[in-house]
Amino acid sequence: MPSADSKGLATKHASTIAAWGGEETPLAFGAAQVPIVQSAPFAYADVDGWLAAAQGRSEGHIYSRNTNPTVGVFEEKVRLLEGAEDATAFASGMAAISNTLFTFLRPGNRIVSTTDTYGGTSKIFLDFLPPMGIVVDLVDTEDADALEQSIRKGARIVYLETPSNPTLKLVDLRRAIAAAKAIGAISVVDNTFATPINQHPIQLGADLVLHSATKFLGGHDDAMGGVLAGRRELVRQVYHYREITGASLGAFAAYLLLRGLKTLDLRVRRQSETALAMARHLLAHPKVDAVFYPGLESHAGHAIAASQMSGFGGVLSFAIKGDFEAVKRCLNATKLAHRAASLGSVNTLIGIPGTTSHVECTPEERARLGIPETLVRYSCGIEAFEDLRDDLDMALQHV
Ligand SMILES: *Cc1c(COP(=O)(O)O)cnc(C)c1O
């Protein structure tokens, strides 16, 4: 639920919002930092006060599956960062995605999306929605004409994700959102890769924007979470679905996420700079076949990226010259990167689609999605570029 915003943060810069958003003083006990309110229910001095809070006539929390003060600060920061009317948080990114889809989709509805969505999301599209009588059309991510044509056939939801995982394909948000608007569909954008530092889907017309907060928003690989922001009337419906079905964010995770969020602007700017420098470096590397990064002029989606993003993000991928054994030798040799499944952390992370974004897919399915088996995904941390470059150069000598 949005709070008063007495500091006028809605018109301030992202770094100011991240530091102060939702922190209406005085905080409980006069604390200067947001307390972790680790309590399932909230107690009242008398029944009248309890009733007033339960009926929304006065401020107050009832039960942490519905709302929690620490979670509320995290939601308010994201709401302000995304320029949204409202925001609601979840236990994970997949909870945000599944709750949003299940709130609005009914048997007979149609949903239009792209082939390159996050692995878990595409599993919902392929395995869970069709048995519920929902028609799913997944269009080639880079075919803007086909996407527009499919949307024109009618849809309840148009679900977009850009840049995509792991080959960083771009979707033209303005065009797809305009097509969704024209038919009265709800447009949803997964903004996890771009972050609200580099991309503002709501300014581009989107109804809803969501995140795996586990990634850049939290930024420290120490907490799971998800968040949805956008038009109030829609967010309230998803909030209601979540408060009943229960995929709520816990107070401790919310505290870690909002602590991480305070440095979002600093981290993402550094990570985006490093990723661009690394992509340029790898482009000229003799052991590298192809580099996928929207900041490269040679990238198929560069023009779209430049028109809708203010930075190109902290994640890149590249294909190694050699076989899968060579990929393994390179990954095993890196010293300044965790071989781990996530992205967006202060520490650099390295992975292959078979163990990260597309672990659920067979090699044939990955081939069909145009994901080479020699692809390496590289999520830049906040380390110095020179040190990461030297580490990767050393590791690539093992190819
Ligand atoms: C990780 C990720 C998700 C899923 O989020 P979880 O927090 O792991 O549930 C969804 N979308 C994108 C783009 C992701 O990277």
Automatic annotation (TrEMBL):
<dbReference type="GO" id="GO:0016846">
    <property type="term" value="F:carbon-sulfur lyase activity"/>
</dbReference>
<dbReference type="InterPro" id="IPR015421">
    <property type="entry name" value="PyrdxlP-dep_Trfase_major"/>
</dbReference>
<keyword id="KW-0808">Transferase</keyword>
<dbReference type="GO" id="GO:0030170">
    <property type="term" value="F:pyridoxal phosphate binding"/>
</dbReference>
<dbReference type="GO" id="GO:0005737">
    <property type="term" value="C:cytoplasm"/>
</dbReference>
<feature type="modified residue" description="N6-(pyridoxal phosphate)lysine">
    <location>
        <position position="215"/>
    </location>
</feature>
<protein>
    <submittedName>
        <fullName>Aminotransferase class I/II-fold pyridoxal phosphate-dependent enzyme</fullName>
    </submittedName>
</protein>
<dbReference type="InterPro" id="IPR015422">
    <property type="entry name" value="PyrdxlP-dep_Trfase_small"/>
</dbReference>
<dbReference type="Pfam" id="PF01053">
    <property type="entry name" value="Cys_Met_Meta_PP"/>
</dbReference>
<dbReference type="GO" id="GO:0019346">
    <property type="term" value="P:transsulfuration"/>
</dbReference>
<dbReference type="InterPro" id="IPR015424">
    <property type="entry name" value="PyrdxlP-dep_Trfase"/>
</dbReference>
<keyword id="KW-0663">Pyridoxal phosphate</keyword>
<keyword id="KW-0032">Aminotransferase</keyword>
<dbReference type="InterPro" id="IPR000277">
    <property type="entry name" value="Cys/Met-Metab_PyrdxlP-dep_enz"/>
</dbReference>
<comment type="similarity">
    <text>Belongs to the trans-sulfuration enzymes family.</text>
</comment>
<dbReference type="GO" id="GO:0008483">
    <property type="term" value="F:transaminase activity"/>
</dbReference>
